[in-house]
Amino acid sequence: MCIRDSFYTDIIGLTLLTREGDDAQMGAGTEPLLLLHGQAGLSRVRRATGLYHFALLLPSRADLGDALQHYVEVNAPISGFADHAVSEAIYLTDPDGHGIEVYRDRPREEWAYTNGALRMTTEPIDFDGVLRSRSGAWRGLPPGTMMGHIHLQVAQIEATERFYIDLIGQDLVLRYGPSATFLSANGYHHHIGGNTWAGVGLPPAPADAARLLWYEIRQPDAAAIDAIAARLATAGYGHERDTTGLRVVDPSGIQLLLTAH
Questions:
Q1: What is the edge-to-edge ordering of all strands in the sheet holding 87-93?
Q2: What is the pLDDT of residues 52-82, one digit of tens each?
Q3: β-strand partners of 231
Q4: pTM: predicted TM-score of the whole model, two decimal places
Q5: Collapsed DSSP state (helix, strand, coil) of residue 249
Q6: In the beta sheet, which residues pair with residue 215?
């Protein structure tokens, strides 16, 4: 993508932490969340595997209210809103066509289950309730904001589930019809989403497209990465390990980096 510092700071509310050449590291407070790599002349691509959206999780509903008020005031490129029962979300699109979700979670004790399965919905958001909750003090996305989940455009749902469940160690939370899957660790509603809404069997994004280069999954410790490496080796699945962590490419051609927290 092209470097879009001002969009991510002035519109989205992230903080520019470092800028080195074509790379800009963005975060909330001092926590790095996003690395932008600039490359001129890139085009948008839709029918390819890669990023569907990344999701910034805010600490509270008041923070979501502050963000919503700010996005309305600056005429941010909002693409949608949703109440997912477990969360409330604002969806935006960056200048290169990448999806962004800014959301807050409801407390886990409010999550509903049907026959042991987590209930997630897509309903209209309570605009008035979210706005009434705001503190009225917008200073950008607050410290404590984290990368809540990533949603990927994948080539095939079954292959995605086999890879992330059997090899990476995620749990299946739910299937959303035949064309979307939601996976997580520790009972969360989802850390990784995957869909084939743009088509089944799509190729990876070409090198001249604005695209996701890689994303990171933090593991609790080095032993967790050792276990993943062992499962990959047993399955004969190619991967590389160096001082930064373990790198592997999923069945959709999407590269992920596994690091110890």
A1: 78-83, 87-93, 99-105, 50-58, 146-153, 192-195, 180-184, 171-175
A2: 999 999 999 999 999 999 999 999 999 999 9
A3: none
A4: 0.95
A5: strand
A6: 256
